[in-house]
Amino acid sequence: MLSFIGRRLLQAMFVLLIISFVSFMIQDKMGDPVRQMVGLSVTLEQREALQQELGLNDPMLIQYGRFLGRAIQGDLGTSYYYKEPTIDVIASRLPATLELSFAALVLVVLLAIPLGVFAAIHPKNILSRAVLLFSTLGLSVPIFIVAVFLMYFFAIEWGLLPSFGRGETTSVFGLWQSGLFNRDGLQHLLLPSLSLAFVLTPIFIRLIRAEMMDVLQSDYIRYAWAKGISAPRIYFIHALKNTMLPVITVGGIQLGTLVAYTILTESIFQWPGMGLLFMDAVTRVDVPLISTYLIFVGVIFVVTNTLVDVVYSLVNPRVRIPGYS
Amino acid sequence: MSLLKLENLSVTFGQFRAVDQISYTVNEGEVLGIVGESGSGKSVSSLSLMGLIDYPGKVSADELSFMEQDLLSMPETQRRKITGSDIAMIFQDPMTSLNPCYTVGYQIIEALKTHQGGTKKELKTRAIELLNLVGIPAPESRLSAYPHQLSGGMSQRVMIAIAIGCNPKLLIADEPTTALDVTIQAQIIDLLIDLQKQKQMGLVLITHDLALVAEVAHRVIVMYAGQIVESGPASEVFSTPKHPYTQALLASLPESAAGKARLEALPGVVPGQYDRPKGCLLSPRCPYATDHCRNVVPDNQGPLERQVKCHTPLDTMGRPAA
What we know:
Largest interface: A-B, 20 and 28 residues
Distance between the termini of chain A: 8 Å
Mean pLDDT of chain A: 85
Largest sheet of chain A: 2 strands, antiparallel
Oligomer: heterodimer
Structural class of chain A: mainly alpha
């Protein structure tokens, strides 16, 4: 296990190196930083002096080396807009995004597994057909439509739920601003997480249904029936575990989609998370913040993919992490 | 007393009769061999005994009883209790019949727990005993092995252990050795026959292997296209086959073709769903078929213990009757 984590860390470093390189290159292509910093009244000579001072005239690779050197010390630059280290700005928004993604993921699991399993066991049932119809709908409707509809009905027409923001938050150990521990925060969480879940659930329903139907045809399920085991045990112990193998793999990939959709969801519901921050940073050409966001997302991807690998090996005995037994 | 009694059992999938009105009995301590080529309904008929025919398949019978209990009319819960305990079954492909996600021990104990119950410790001891009984070395350590860590022969032994775990009165073995190595085949069959004698189980042995049936079965049933074409004591059926199909099966054995360049084989294939002959199902392939055979469905001939479904059963010299 340790050697696995060690190797994963090395891989992660490599991935992050590439991401940092790309995000650094973006900085250069998004306009002249000096023009962002100074006004129109500054003379050409002064600008050139500033460029020289900032090291902007040095070759790209040397600049990148300098950037890396600072990055290793935990300095990814200072946000133009917030005038604070970008890491601090992002870290303050991280809890909101993670809580939103987590809530959406819980909803997806709670909805997709029972519905997918039901549709696989009773393919001809009218409810199964309805579930499939719903999933086609969910697959084809983009999230901003779903979100706007949810907002229109639940927030505006019926006035049941708040339409924007994160509501009240409580501080957990002074490190984490959480909206999960009070009624207001949870109410605010419901609509954004529901919209996120709405676009992700259909894929999983279809996947679980298709996989489960396949598994139910297999020899070991037929043998389980022949052993005289009860139907619930066969469906939920014998079939579901095998069904989940490809679902976990696809789920890992879908986490990327989740990050992308969080940007949209956060913009629509004005959810003060990383996604909204990123959108604002783009409109403000806050380049250091943009590249820091990209690096953060890279870290999230590496971490979640490692977790997915660990979970997969726990579920599937045929795959064992090398060096771990 | 007969353990299992089938009277005109049919399994239909829509219009297609996979099993067509078959009748047989299995007595306590008896080994019944069922032979026939692929698609002759051997497996489907045994699955129907276990209640494992899924929609849209339909099972119907004048009688299907086990120890004088009607299997078809009994409530589903009661039937599920018999399945896997009093009637057990082992399948053709041991490597894919065990669930890859659970350990061997888990799968053995699960079956024991379902039908007999007991404390965790008792169940574990019993599982180790069973693995011992089927000749698996170091059974304690095998309990925590996953199916992919076992060879085909080992997996089949595990399946047998699960099957006999609840002391079944009837064991159905559906081609138990087809997927195995030849050397392992003999070991598995020896094991099955040993256990059958020890426990005085009825054993239904479904196989392609005629030599095997001749050796171990008391009685044999020959199936063709979902029907029983011939049945009787194994020694008689194989020494003096009465049905042209049985004769052809025996002639197709490599042993019968010693010194010949090619194996004997019947031309053609088993009739499918849409090309069923009007008369005898074998008539398009039968070397002795007459117009009468082609137009009229033959009845079962002869006494119950030695039946043949043919208009012109063969005599002891292997020639059709006039």
